[in-house]
Specification:
single chain, 5-stranded antiparallel β-sheet, 12 strands, 46% helix
Length: 333
């Protein structure tokens, strides 16, 4: 089998039990809370928490379970926190939020919303609480929402896309440790797309009903294409694996591509053929059998046929053409 393509998604699992009690607060404050401050726990209630995070270049996903404790959003104390927002799904327990303005309210299990870390607030978590969250660049969230949030939070649970977003976050929470890196990257990309689309709906309520189905399909298509790009080298990649990788049914996945006049496997074939063409152009003398396998084609004969149908030349002819073009370009310089 060819080596897997490198993943841009990194996973980290932290547990307070891995740190001795005397150091637990200081270590957890620095390692688990990059954008908010952690208040010291009461002396009779030692910190007990677990945190799983996935990070790529566009966002960070996390799921945390903990004993009762409190955090503070202090943008002037945490570098970069004012540039980020958090989409949070409360999976268990409740959170009391106390804003600097004096406002106070409680959110409980099932609540889904966006919280602006540029606004100072204290978040008090109940015992046995559990949260799944997505940290997004504030600039991306504002583009999707259409304006700066009018207040600390934006309620998302009433958006048409809320069930899909909550489902994606829950799927990441339960499957992140068991899936391979490309699969995790695909799910994370899908969660980011769904979160931004839900923010768009929240910021444009008059359009919500009209765009709900289209935006959800677009989110699935984007997530599927990202998943394909990460997995294109796998000869066994099929409709079932792609649907599983982005957390939706085969029927909905197919509909997302049919609406654009395409098919799932047709899109995958195009990803593979474009990758093969790029490799041939970089190395016209590459062994075509190895190249076709590395790009996800089960046989070289099938690869040759599909390549010629798509680009008008057989792979070896395209290689000679690329070599001639490169030689001509070198002489012209």
């Amino acid at each position: 089998m060819p080596p897997a393509s490198p993943s841009a998604c990194t996973l980290e699992l932290l547990s307070s039990h891995d740190v001795e009690p005397a150091l637990r607060y200081d270590v957890w404050r620095e390692r688990a809370h990059r954008w908010v401050d952690l208040d010291p726990p009461p002396p009779d209630a030692p910190l007990d928490a677990e945190l799983l995070t996935l990070r790529d270049h566009g966002c960070t996903f996390g799921t945390m379970s903990s004993s009762a404790y409190a955090t503070r959003a202090n943008p002037w104390r945490r570098t970069g926190s004012a540039d980020m927002v958090v989409v949070s799904l409360i999976q268990a327990g409740q959170v009391r939020i106390r804003a600097r303005t004096g406002e106070s309210w409680c959110i409980s299990e099932g609540s889904l919303g966006l919280y602006d870390l540029a606004r100072p607030a204290r978040y008090e978590w109940s015992a046995s609480s559990r949260e799944a969250f997505l940290v997004l660049p504030r600039a991306d969230a504002l583009v999707a929402y259409g304006a700066a949030p009018n207040g600390l939070a934006v309620v998302l649970e009433n958006c048409p896309l809320a069930p899909a977003l909550a489902s994606q976050l829950t799927l990441l929470s339960s499957q992140a440790q068991t899936l391979d890196e490309p699969a995790r990257a695909g799910l994370l990309a899908g969660a980011r797309v769904l979160a931004l689309l839900a923010l768009h709906q929240a910021g444009h309520p008059g359009q919500a009903d009209a765009i709900a189905a289209d935006t959800l399909a677009a989110g699935r298509r984007t997530a599927a294409l990202r998943f394909m790009e990460s997995h294109a080298h796998r000869v066994d990649l099929d409709l079932n694996l792609i649907a599983l990788g982005i957390g939706c049914s085969r029927t909905r996945l197919c509909a997302a591509f049919t609406d654009e006049g395409d098919t799932v496997m047709g899109a995958l074939r195009e990803v593979r053929l474009q990758r093969a063409r790029e490799r041939i152009e970089r190395d016209p003398n590459a062994h075509l059998g190895a190249l076709s396998w590395a790009c996800g084609f089960a046989t070289q004969a099938n690869f040759n046929r599909l390549f010629k149908t798509r680009f008008g030349l057989a792979p070896n002819e395209w290689g000679r053409h690329a070599a001639t073009a490169a030689l001509t370009s070198g002489h012209q310089r």
